[in-house]
């Protein structure tokens, strides 16, 4: 009786051990087969990109964060750089946020970004609608409009440097002088205030960063970037079925009403893409402004570059670039959420 | 009614003309400047024809090849731009498409999050990465001798475009029905075979678009060589054009000639393949 009970207990234990063993081995088997066979390909194809991401984005970002927490200096002796990162905590950030130059750069960047985006969603949409009309030579017009986008940024910068040249042989000054619109050449690249006859507006614009030079930068930048905005929006316009407009016409809707009710909402998804791409490009704007102004019109990017490479202060350079990064990512998250919501609906 | 319509047509053509003028006038100005002698760029009133005329600004880019002459620097910059941009493109296409395929097809948890991280990495500002890159290459990685090399530029360029490549290519892979691939596999094709023989040909427009976009982005890059390759061995065309802009003398005619030459490849790409690039960039938005 007792022995049979013992046998039963032993059997039970061994059975339960057995099942546990088989469960373990099943889990192991599943893990193993997920690494081999079917899933092996997946990992093999994905891992190089993830490694690249870790190596060239994540590690540098972590390192930049560490640098931003130190009094970081690099001394190069005999081709070998020496790094000193004396820990100072958040001091770099505190100093930056207390520095009026940083806030000027912040407002400059904001002005550059917001005004450019405003131009792009108004003139850009207008240009796209124009390219979508029926007219003689439309095909060649679409090609011509697209060309400036292909011009390299640095060439664009040099070109607008020649156009905006402050002497009377600058192209814009020459045109305006010969048409007798102005009597003496204007120094387009000088950060002089606008609206000098209305003092409060003038000082407000200056505070916002909206100087003559800044607006010239926006014009030069838009010459190269409006084409891609317009062409992308045109691609969006072409996906809107013509029947919608015909139905609206039957209902007697005006052109403006059609635009408000059909064109604008249906452009939404493509508009989000354009806004994401452009906002990020504008926030990091460097080449055009740096080439034409050096440090004269410091946007955040130029400010960070100057701190690091001109003053050798890699700590606060990193801190500024970290702040730009966080700002960009916050904006990107907002946009991307919007995009996903649009795709869901 | 007809009167109003004609009025509209006139307005339409006026707008077309205005936009054409706005687009072409700066290009025309660049072209005539590149064909002027230096004196023609600083006289007033400015001549809107290439006078005094010369081909010399283009000529100096190709002749009198000696150490540190303009042609030496131009041709080296051209070589560097070609090498760095094509390597970046190939590297990005191979790695990026592979990753995009997995992120589109595999039943891996968090693949949306991974895609978002890649995209976010693409949206990071250039300076945010360039400072740590510079410090790492000249200090800890000094032994690798990466500073001022094409290798370094290719690695860094890649970090700026890989996210976009993955994002766009994932959109293309998503648009291909799963059944197509399953049918091939029922017929006995392995995953690799079905990927190479069936999926890749279908995504060829996407591959072309992302490839060209990557090429254009790396061709355009100026900040990275400014910081990471300022000496003669790896600087690219944008940096060369920047260096033409002397501190005291602005040789606008030479700058214009160099600029036009460096704009030829991207302009040709946009003229011939612009449509593919646009559909690639919008693939993420209108795939539904």
Q: Mind telling me the CATH superfamily name of chain B?
A: MetI-like
Uncertain runs of chain B: none
Question: In percent, how helical is the residue content of chain A?
Answer: over 70%
CA radius of gyration of chain A is 30 Å
Structural commentary:
- The complex is a heterodimer of chains A (345) and B (288).
- With 345 residues, chain A is mainly alpha-helical.
- Chain A has a domain at 99-312: MetI-like (MetI-like fold, Orthogonal Bundle), CATH 1.10.3720.10.
- In chain A, 74% of the residues lie in helices and 5% in strands.
- Chain A is built from 15 helices and 2 strands.
- In chain A, strands 1-2 form a two-stranded antiparallel ribbon.
- In chain A, helix 6 (153-163) packs parallel to helix 13 (287-293) and helix 14 runs antiparallel to helix 15 (314-344).
- Chain A is flat, with a radius of gyration of 30 Å.
- Chain A starts with a helix and ends with a helix.
- In chain A, 38% of the residues are buried.
- The mean pLDDT of chain A is 84.
- By secondary structure, chain B is mostly helical.
- Chain B has a single domain, classed as Orthogonal Bundle (MetI-like fold), CATH 1.10.3720.
- Chain B contains 12 helices and no strands.
- Chain B has helices at 2-34, 56-59, 70-105, 111-123, 126-138, 150-174, 178-186, 191-202, 204-220, 223-228, 237-244, 252-283.
- In chain B, helix 3 (70-105) packs antiparallel against helix 9 (204-220) and helix 7 crosses helix 8 (191-202).
- The mean pLDDT of chain B is 85.
- Chains A and B meet through helix 2, strand 1, strand 2, helix 5 and helix 6 of A and helix 1, helix 3, helix 4, helix 5 and helix 6 of B.
Can I get a quick summary?
Chain A is mainly alpha-helical. Chain A has helices spanning 2-35, 37-68, 91-98, 100-131, 138-146, 153-163, 171-178, 199-208, 212-237, 242-250, 255-266, 268-283, 287-293, 300-310, 314-344; strands spanning 70-77, 80-87. In chain A, a hairpin with a 2-residue loop joins strand 1 and strand 2.
